[in-house]
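Homework help board

Subject: predicted structure for assignment chain

Our instructor gave us this sequence and asked us to write out the predicted structure in token form, then describe one feature. I got the tokens but I'm not sure how to describe them. Can anyone check?
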Amino acid sequence: MITKIDIPPDNRHEYIGLSTDIPKPDYAGVNSLFLELDTRDIYYFDGSDWQQVPDSGGGGGGGSGGNVPSGGTTGQLLAKASGTNYDTTWVNQFGFNTATITLTAANWSSSLIDVTCSGMTSTAKVWVSPAATDSDMSNYASAQIYCSAQATDTLTFKCIGTTPTSNIDVEVIWA
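My token output:
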């Protein structure tokens, strides 16, 4: 799973998930995205249910499949060119900062934990995911952890499930 942190006014969190067997969360913010790695299906949350994005599965690799225009160069990303459906263009990607942070089991207090993320601003767009180990992903999912607040150099995580009894490594990306 990857959690995108952008606290909407209704305090529900935008959520970007990656999963082959972890269920889609029911606490996601409207228009949150979920990618199923095994099927490559993309879903968005409409506020009450997850809806599959049309033509999102399988494919990959461009060609005449899907709605991917020809062109682009290595490292470029496909982006919306206007508000019109399927109007896309290739754009250069921008830089990201990354860090691996340990959510230490002994530091959870009232289902909250603050961690340092040096160099992050309070207005940065932040994405969080458990490290790619079975135990980190499983513990992260069972604890139902999400980032509840962000400040300069600090992220606050909240656990709405079972408080973790072991450390959990998370990957943080911000721009």
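Reply (TA_rk): Your tokens look well-formed. For the description, you could write something like this. Confidence is low (pLDDT under 50) at residues 1-9, 59-65. That's the kind of observation they're looking for.
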